[in-house]
Design a protein that fits this description.
By secondary structure, the chain is an alpha+beta fold. Among the domains are: 116 residues, Uridine Diphospho-n-acetylenolpyruvylglucosamine Reductase, domain 3 (2-Layer Sandwich); 198 residues, Alpha-Beta Plaits, CATH 3.30.70. 33% of the residues lie in helices and 20% in strands. A hairpin with a 4-residue loop joins β15 and β16. The chain starts with 6 loop residues before the first helix and ends in a 15-residue tail after the last helix. 49% of the residues are buried. This is FAD dependent oxidoreductase. Pfam families: FAD-oxidase_C (PF02913), FAD_binding_4 (PF01565).
Length: 471
């Protein structure tokens, strides 16, 4: 049974920390982006180094006080907000934001968990390298949260998830001990991989305080095109042709439905759309090429091949790096347009590539049977990750459909499970999807997860109620 972070506990904790380490949380610390959940906390802890994090965790373990870790607050499944239960301590690593070292010859950067993703990207660029994790929230999300949720983004097709970009971790475990795993090694076969256990655990097994991250050399040339495709099946065939031509040089392959562009036109009329007559489906193809290759020539050849095969009907080729950035800005604006419209239910799902076209057809028909609804389906087609979001009819508000939200999500997730997919591709479980994980998760995996949680965090203080239901 957890105890609250009450005045007596906070007074004892303050005595162990430098002045200014504890403060009252601001509203921004207790809300999540979609506005559906409101958190609570006895106080906000702002440690400056790993030793202070360890002292905080040890004190909470001794007093049986829950800890809710906070990164940039951009998570979409409620992992950073605890609505009910004894008041927890909110722990933010925003003061721990330093680059501890950069090793260009090794393609490695060491950063603290509070570092903002865009600042890590800038540090890599200054050293002539690139940190290839790109998210719409990169100006505010933090590395600790990226790793805790195993963030994906737009370049997973080529570079992998956050997990694939991490070599080592430093973390504070639930008893206050420090895991010194901040190594720069590509090979380290010395027993259980605590790094991979902590990545994706959403703060339920420990607090990530620093990370050793992989860098890459920037491509010699980059290019992008927006191509109008017949349907998702044609988009997948186009992906296959692009990979046959260019192999791993295809960096991104994004699928967008007409509804996403319609929402952009409605909420951000200043955005210039790529086609006068919007096609039902569009893909954004992004290339990062080696020395001597011409992006325009490669994209033109791909378009000609696809057009001859009847896969594409129109296209816009980026004529400069600035226009390529404009194409990506369109894609990255879709989530903000969705937010302004107001989704009834949002789904972050992944499917085997061969199941995507059938899923889109079946899910569209199933959602249509539930009522007058609009669907915006978009996402990272190259790695099978779709954002399948359902919206009210034009002129109506999402609150009018509150009684349908659960049925909509159940309908989508049932179809995903039947196709061998995942109900959480890149956003994690948080608190929003705990029941879904119990419904669709493998029973053996869930038993093992609960056993790991009990072994490492016997008092249940680490992000209580996230990922696994609190006892």
């Amino acid at each position: 049974m957890l105890n609250p972070a009450d005045d007596a506990f906070l007074a004892r904790l303050a005595g162990r920390l430098p002045p200014g380490s504890l403060t009252a949380p601001e509203p921004r610390h207790l809300t999540e982006p979609r506005g559906r959940r409101q958190g609570q906390a006895g106080a906000l802890a702002l440690p400056r180094d790993t030793a202070e994090v360890a002292a905080i965790v040890a004190a909470c373990a001794a007093a049986r006080v829950g800890i809710v870790p906070l990164g940039g607050g951009t998570g979409l499944v409620g992992g950073q907000v605890m609505e009910t239960g004894p008041l927890p301590l909110l722990l933010s690593l925003e003061r721990m934001n330093r680059v501890r070292g950069i090793f260009p010859e090794e393609n490695v950067i060491l950063v603290e968990a509070g570092a903002i993703l865009a600042e890590v990207q800038a540090a890599a660029e200054a050293a002539g390298r690139m940190f290839p994790l790109w998210l719409a929230s990169e100006g505010s999300c933090r590395i600790g949260g990226n790793l805790a949720s195993n963030a994906g983004g737009t370049a997973v097709l080529r570079y992998g998830n956050a997990r694939d970009l991490c070599l080592g971790l430093e973390a504070v475990l639930p008893d206050g001990s420090v895991f010194h795993g901040l190594k720069r090694l590509r090979k380290d076969n010395t027993g259980y991989d605590l790094r991979n256990l902590l990545i994706g655990a959403e703060g339920t097994l420990g607090i990530i305080t620093a990370a050793s991250l992989k860098l890459v050399r920037p491509p010699a040339a980059e290019g992008a095109a927006l191509l109008a495709v017949r349907d998702p099946a044609a988009a997948l065939e186009l992906l296959g042709r692009a990979q046959r031509r260019l192999g791993p040089l295809v960096t991104g392959f994004e699928l967008m439905h007409r509804q996403g562009f319609a929402f952009l036109a409605e909420t951000m009329p200043e955005r210039r759309l790529p086609f006068a007559d919007l096609p039902d489906w569009t893909v954004l193809v992004d290339l990062g090429l080696t020395e001597g290759m011409d992006p325009a020539a490669e994209l033109e050849a791909l378009f000609a091949e696809a057009a001859e095969a009847g896969l594409v009907s129109d296209g816009a080729l980026a004529q400069s790096l600035a226009q390529r950035a404009d194409f990506w800005a369109l894609r990255e604006s879709i989530p903000e347009a969705n937010r302004r419209i107001g989704a009834i239910a949002s789904h972050d799902i992944s499917l085997p590539l061969s199941e995507i076209a059938r899923f889109v057809t079946e899910a569209g028909a199933a959602i249509g049977r539930l009522g007058d609804l609009r669907v915006n389906c978009f996402g990272h087609l190259g790695d099978g990750n779709l954002h399948y979001n359902v919206f009210p009819a034009a002129g109506r508000r999402r609150e009018a459909y509150d009684d349908l939200r659960g049925e909509i999500t159940r309908t989508v997730h049932d179809l995903v499970a039947a196709a061998g997919g995942s109900i959480s591709a890149e956003h994690g479980i948080g608190r929003l999807k705990v029941e879904d994980l119990e419904r669709y998760g493998d029973p053996a995996k869930l038993r093992a997860m609960r056993a790991l949680k009990a072994a490492l965090d016997p008092f249940g203080i680490m992000n209580p109620g996230a990922v696994l239901r609190a006892e």
